[in-house]
């Protein structure tokens, strides 16, 4: 020990000195380097493992080494906005459609489906299907968004796939009996479409088309006949034919034979031909003539509900029987009551 020597004269002084020296040693031991502390800790763990092995053989086996892995980037667990979630779901399901360009959203311009119907390309329902399938181009651009508006002078092109799809649709001619309604069942009376079965097909149908259940899918009446009327009723899957026969601007002739009771003057006959008002609307001119002493022949270019019966009532006649014998250029012909056949490719309404 460097420095001047210390002289401890009393026993009490020596005890105090030794106590301070011991405290200094303890303090120095507590200030060991970290590496020494870790070494002691490792030694203690090994000693504890040896005690465990002696108490529980096999329990102290060395742990399986785990290779270090790259730290994964933090994941954003915050909820996505509702709009974003809906958009992502639609995109993943393949249902998200192309947005309509703003230039086509002018409210004064017609919707694409309506414009296609006006041009006679197809019905509006078919147009929506074609647009959804990507079969329609406007000015060279494929449009898949329903409700898109287009200029009146837009160039509209239809993919040949749409025409092929359209050509596979069928049109059926039925000789409707009395007691059946044209559309949905009502008042306990069955719809006429229930008669379109393989068993009810006319045995002399010139078409070799094989009946399939798919021919009933989307099949709808293109016109109507009252429950008390009989004759030609057209069912079709083709929207063009339906529009041609019953569209708002349709001018296709329908011919009827009407058995009546009562007296008809020349003035009344003239009124039937032109001059009657129904539901506040002047009827279009009609061709009306006597077929025989109790039967009239009507040729109309419009089809209001129970129109012929109401026309006859206005001139003092009672209708006893009504039969439609022609729609456009397609006659009922020899088709038996309750039977049906396919429209031939050479037949046009």
What does this structure look like?
The chain has 349 residues and is of the alpha+beta class. It is built from nine helices and 14 strands. The protein has helices at 11-30, 34-55, 82-92, 112-118, 124-132, 160-167, 239-246, 266-273, 307-314; strands spanning 136-138, 141-142, 156-158, 171-176, 220-221, 230-236, 254-261, 277-278, 281-282, 287-292, 295-300, 318-327, 330-331, 340-342. Strands 4, 5, 6, 7, 10, 11, 12, 13 and 14 form a nine-stranded mixed beta sheet that branches. Strand 10 and strand 11 (295-300) form a beta hairpin. The radius of gyration is 47 Å and the shape is elongated. Mean pLDDT is 80; it is low at 3-9, 58-73 and 75-99.
């Amino acid at each position: 020990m460097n420095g001047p020597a210390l002289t401890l004269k009393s026993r009490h002084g020596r005890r105090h000195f030794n106590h301070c020296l011991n405290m200094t040693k303890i303090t120095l031991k507590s200030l060991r380097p970290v590496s020494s502390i870790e070494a002691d800790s490792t030694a203690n763990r090994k000693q504890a493992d040896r005690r465990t092995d002696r108490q529980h053989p096999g329990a102290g086996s060395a742990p399986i080494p785990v290779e270090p892995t790259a730290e994964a980037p933090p994941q954003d667990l915050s909820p996505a906005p509702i709009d974003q979630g809906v958009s992502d779901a639609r995109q993943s399901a393949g249902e998200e459609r192309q947005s309509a360009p703003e230039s086509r959203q002018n409210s004064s311009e017609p919707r694409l489906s309506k414009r296609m119907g006006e041009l006679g390309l197809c019905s509006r329902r078919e147009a929506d299907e074609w647009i959804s399938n990507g079969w329609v181009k406007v000015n060279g651009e494929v449009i898949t968004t329903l409700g898109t508006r287009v200029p009146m002078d837009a160039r509209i092109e239809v993919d040949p796939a749409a025409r092929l799809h359209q050509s596979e649709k069928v049109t059926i001619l039925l000789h409707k009996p009395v007691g059946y309604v044209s559309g949905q069942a009502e008042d306990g009376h069955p719809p006429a479409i229930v008669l379109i079965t393989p068993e009810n097909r006319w045995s002399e149908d010139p078409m070799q088309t094989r009946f399939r259940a798919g021919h009933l899918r989307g099949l709808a009446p293109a016109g109507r006949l009252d429950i008390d009327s009989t004759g030609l009723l057209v069912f079709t899957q083709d929207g063009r034919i339906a529009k041609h026969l019953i569209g708002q601007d349709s001018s296709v002739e329908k011919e009827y034979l009407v058995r009546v009771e009562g007296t008809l003057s020349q003035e009344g006959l003239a009124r039937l031909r032109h001059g009657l008002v129904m539901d506040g609307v002047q009827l279009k001119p009609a061709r009306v003539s006597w077929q025989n002493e109790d039967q009239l022949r009507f040729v109309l270019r419009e089809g209001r509900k129970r129109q012929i019966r109401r026309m006859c009532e206005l001139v003092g006649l009672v209708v006893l029987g009504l039969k439609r014998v022609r729609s456009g250029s397609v006659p009922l012909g020899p088709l038996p009551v309750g039977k049906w056949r396919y429209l031939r490719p050479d037949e046009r309404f």
